[in-house]
Amino acid sequence: MSEHILVEREQGLLTLRLNRLDKKNALTAAMYAGLADALEAAEGDSSVRVVMIAGSADCFTAGNDIVDFLEQPPTGPDSPVFRFMRALMDFSKPVVAAVAGPAVGIGTTLLLHCDLVCVSRDAKLKMPFVNLALCPEFGSSYLLPRLLGHARAAQLLLRGDGFTGEQAGAWGIAGEVLADGAATLERARQAAQELLSLAPSALAVSKRLMKAPYIDELRRVVREEGDVFVGRLSTPEAIEALSAFTQRRQPDFSKFI
């Protein structure tokens, strides 16, 4: 388990806490592996009935650690990030997310696979995939148009527009909007406790039925997005965009047609 993933157990609740605050909880390959390991183990552990994913009261996650990402890029379905995606997407038990501060890239798209999402009013969510010359991931190209309609999804995925926790609640990405990060963490924990009081098999069956009409298509889309994403990493556009990001400059796409 990565030192930057804190695993906390308490009476049926497994909390996976992102703990790399000096880097705004930016996710590394080791962190993805740790999250995947924890979810895979929890799937078969009857003592775990609910999972909560959280950061701190000030920061959920800034998304991928770009330097680590470039040093250890995903290459196929067994890469840590794709293992994490599959584990969360197919997890049969309720998952609660607590989001405060920045939630960038996968920090936003993973919320589409959680069951209860609590977000602070001033959280800052963003999916800047095209801005990095990449493409949407984790089923966002499928789920967001279904949830928001094409026009609004295009603003978020084609332009990479940021949005607030308040907007996430209004648009249905989050179920509850709280005043601040501390209140968000507390409410998410309370929501998890409420789920723990319910019949676990009834929860699992209900979650399965809710996802049954589209889960096969979602898995197909996630695989296709992953294949395209991996391919784009070596394109000249992506090399320019990611280099510009690490060099803290604006990318120049004028030479690309």
What's a concise summary of this model?
InterPro entries: ClpP/crotonase-like_dom_sf, ECH/Chromodomain_protein, Enoyl-CoA_hydra/iso. It contains eleven helices and nine strands.
CATH architecture: Alpha-Beta Complex
> What is the fourth-level CATH superfamily?
2-enoyl-CoA Hydratase, Chain A, domain 1
The helix content, as a percent range, equals 40-55%
Q: Give a quick account of the main beta sheet: strands, pairing sense, barrel closure.
A: 6 strands, mixed
How far apart lie the N and C ends? 44 Å
Describe the 3D structure:
The chain is of the alpha/beta class and 257 residues long. It has a single domain, classed as 2-enoyl-CoA Hydratase, Chain A, domain 1, CATH 3.90.226.10. It has eleven helices and nine strands. The strands form two sheets. A six-stranded mixed beta sheet has the order 1-2-3-4-6-9, sandwiched between helices. A three-stranded mixed beta sheet has the order 5-7-8. α1 (29-43) links the parallel β2 and β3. α1 runs parallel beside α3 (80-89). The mean pLDDT is 96. This is Enoyl-CoA hydratase.
Characteristic terms for this protein:
single chain, 257 residues, alpha/beta, 2-enoyl-CoA Hydratase, Chain A, domain 1, six-stranded mixed sheet, three-stranded mixed sheet, 11 helices, 9 strands, 45% helix, globular
